[in-house]
Amino acid sequence: MSALGFDPIKFQKFQHGMIDSNSLGQAFAIAPQKLMHKMDVLFSQRIFSENPLTAILNQFGPIDDSLTGEEFEWDMKESAHRPSVCTGNLEPNNDTPGKYRQTFKLKLDQRWYLPGDILFAGTKNKKYQVRVQNDAESLGDGFVYEVRIMTDNNNLFIPKKCLEAGHQWAKLYSKYEEASTEAGSTIYPGSTSYRNSISKYKKKDGLTDLANETVLAMQLTDENGGKHLKWMSYAEVQFLKAWNRELERGAWYSTLTRTTPGANGRMVISGAGIDEQLDSSHVLKYNTLTWSILEDFLMSILYGRVAPGNRKVINIFGGEFALKILNSLAQEEMRKKGSVLNIEVVGSKTQSNLHPNAMRFGFQFTRIDMANNISVNAMHLPVADDVTLHTEKDPVTGWPLNSMTLYGLDLATEEGKQNIKIMRKKDSFVYGVRVGLMNGNGSGPLKAHLGDFSESATRIEQGICIVDPTRCFKIECARGA
């Protein structure tokens, strides 16, 4: 079967023409790997629209399922332009280093620079520039450079604080004399290694024949544009809907553990979801959130990471109360003619008999354009408002605390590649049905057991990878456990 898409039509009563050969559920059980991406799209975007993260990630195409182990590693490239850091002042008694154009020693944590490189102290005064005169020498926890201030003013010197431990220096460029045989340094980006684990998810359910009397009829479009009527039982639809909801929950809230035993004594496989991974990124805890606090927080993350003239887009996910706070702050800022220039609701609704808020691409968002060249796409995160999961309430407002959390996700790296992606173990997805003594519904003459029900079961091993967590953030209320 080479399908290009499924177009849900409606729930209806089972009809005798609905046989095994056009049952989408049975085709899925026979060839789960082949149909999985289409089913992911069907249950995250087209019908139920309550799994926004899955919906967005599915737009990038089929999920990478090349993993062969239970853990995955990746490297995050560091900026090639990060400054070096002083590791100590080698001239503590010199209060005017560089005065009278004398050389002095500068101890840095990196051996990056060559004779001729011009280093800048990062101060407001742009005159505090020095030239590296000799190759660096290793000394303890750093490297010593002999430098000379770039000036003809005999009275200019470098402030003593710029030589103290912790102060940062960065290369501006390289300059040489005529007929020089030297050349400046080129700094290549290093990398930081990260590791996460997949999680092993399983689910089963017993489905009675009464639950199978209603089916979801849909139209399949093949690669040649041909239309084919397919069907899936109501019970299967509800089972897969619950299954996809659990995978969305896992993507957000899964916790990393390797020491929790299962029934057979082996350790449960569980990797860190987005919430836990962002604990080691940028986290803002607030008592009262203001637009100024939010704007300063975003600028502290994005400053220096966006090329001039390019608009930076941040995707923010949150519960109803978090979005209520965000919208109120943005509306007030725009009313005051502050830094908010425009607020616009964006989305592609589609007609559906199955869900009142069905979206063609799985989600709707509010775009907030700011004067500092940042745009925020604010999207509702249904799992944050699930009252069966989140019961703790804010003692001040009475609102559910988890619904007041905002997650900021940069979905693409500077190279335009996915920054957040699902990592799936190869051939780990299985979907199967054990048919009992059911009434019709394509069950066929062969029965796996004598009960008046069928059983559906599924399993998958996958995890969430945030390639560069420093491009993401979490904003949460400081109150609560």
Write up this protein.
By secondary structure, this protein is α+β, with helices and mostly antiparallel strands. The chain folds into two domains: 1-79 and 195-481, no CATH class; 84-188. Helices cover 17% and strands 35% of the residues. The chain is built from seven helices and 24 strands. The two termini are 50 Å apart.
Overview features:
481 residues, alpha+beta, 2 domains, 7-stranded mixed beta sheet, 6-stranded antiparallel beta barrel, 17% helix, elongated
Q: What profile does the largest beta sheet have?
A: 7 strands, mixed
Strand order, sheet with most strands: 15-24-20-16-19-18-17
Count of all domains: 2
Low-confidence stretches: 349-362, 439-443
Which descriptor suits the 3D outline? elongated
Strand content range: 25-35%
> SS-based structural class?
alpha+beta
What value does the Rg take, in angstroms? 29 Å
Number of helical segments with 4 or more residues: 7
Overall helicity: 10-25%
Mean pLDDT: 79
Oligomer: single chain
Distance between the termini: 50 Å
| Strands, total number | 24
Quick description:
The chain is of the alpha+beta class and about 475 residues long. The protein contains seven helices and 24 strands.
Task: Give the helices and strands, then pairings.
Layout: E1 3-13, H1 24-30, H2 32-46, H3 52-58, E2 64-67, E3 71-77, E4 84-88, E5 104-108, E6 117-120, E7 129-132, E8 137-139, E9 142-149, E10 168-174, E11 191-197, E12 199-208, E13 214-222, E14 227-233, H4 234-253, H5 274-277, E15 282-286, H6 291-302, E16 312-318, H7 320-335, E17 340-349, E18 359-370, E19 374-380, E20 406-409, E21 420-425, E22 430-434, E23 453-466, E24 473-477
Parallel strand pairs: 2-21, 15-24, 16-19
Antiparallel strand pairs: 1-13, 3-11, 4-5, 4-10, 5-9, 6-7, 6-10, 7-9, 8-9, 12-23, 13-14, 16-20, 17-18, 18-19, 20-24, 21-23, 22-23
Helix pairs in contact: 1-2, 2-3
